[in-house]
Amino acid sequence: MVFALYSFASWSRLQSSKDDDWADRISHLWTVVLLAFFTILVSSAQYVGDPIQCWCPAQFTGSYVSYTKSVCWISNTYYIPMDDSIPVNIHERQKREISYYQWVPIILLFQALMFKFPNMVWKMLNSTGGLNVDRLVSLSESTQIGKQEDREKMTYQVAKYLDRWLKAHRQYHYNLLVRLRQRFSNVFCFWFAKRDGKYLTGFYLFVKFLYVANVIFQFYILNHFLAMNYSVFGLEVIEALVKEGSYTDSPRFPRVTLCDFEIRQMANVQRYTVQCVLPINLFNEKIFIFLWFWYLLVSAVTVFNYLAWLYQILLGGNRYRYVKKYLKLGDNIRNKTDAKLARKFADEYLRDDGVFVLKIVSKNSSELVLSDLINHLWLFYIDNPHTTLPHEKRQREAKMNGKNAVSTLELDIEELRELNNK
Predict the structure, then answer these.
(1) What is the dihedral sign for C-alpha 402, 407, 408, 411?
(2) The pTM is what?
(3) 3 state SS of 191
(4) What DSSP state is assigned to residue 258?
């Protein structure tokens, strides 16, 4: 507990990484912190104060009272409304037992682990794509401070590192086996598509799906743990507030319960039924009401964010639209030829993984950093003679030599003349 509180003292220590987006952090950061806080609150109420008080018969002395409280706490009490008679059949009483209140801290910690699990999978396995995304984002963010020369140098180094990674993960051969693997990569992205530029994006979509499945699975867990239809619990609270104007005690979290226990005296076994108070349920009820609305919010955010990433990744045209605006800011798109080359830059050079990394950088730094990074990558791309058209190369050389740039139409005519001569 001391080490956990020490880690909470530093927000940067708690956040730990910057290789995801804000929707992921709602699950693996904010929700985990909330569940840890509720665990400490409930544990304090259980182990510091008296979690249960029982109204014992008059003949019970101090030790008998302590024994009664201990037995009723570790065994399951049951709830019978005051207006109903207590069933004579023992099995009828057992059907109404409440068995969750002793285990609330455990289930809250388990839920916190489940919300953290997708992030743990992402952190452990994303480096298998050949790129340390967290380190890259941290370096990109550090370029926002310092002198202009230092920022330019750092941005150049980050872009150079990205350029080497993009060039290293490419297909060097194109045969039947490669074509079959490309077909599989459309479905199993993070298994087969490392050289097809879809590994990180496919793996990240899988982690996003884990976030969605987890938050939906939490309702299923609480339905069984609380032995009630927790999925509609929040709707019942809203209905009570609308109809009655206030929310009264819920039978799902009763404060006053009954407890049966037996005492053996010599050869006789005597059964007692006592009435107990569960102050801990005052906290449990408010906690699970809040968690219902919080989980609903997290579900909506997670599902919407997952669908947004699916839309951005599955539609190839989004790659070009994403980098186009930053290239225009750098005055690198002036005509149709530049626009055509920019499309090749997005689809053949950056591909899905490169655009994904740039989006992660943008979500964790600033638009200015991303603009500088994209324009540096653009310079690396156009300086590669294997990725450009002949007339584009001549146009760049003319610009670099200080000559007047030949128009695109003249260059096309010149190429046609060369072909006719051949």
Answers:
(1) negative
(2) 0.78
(3) helix
(4) E
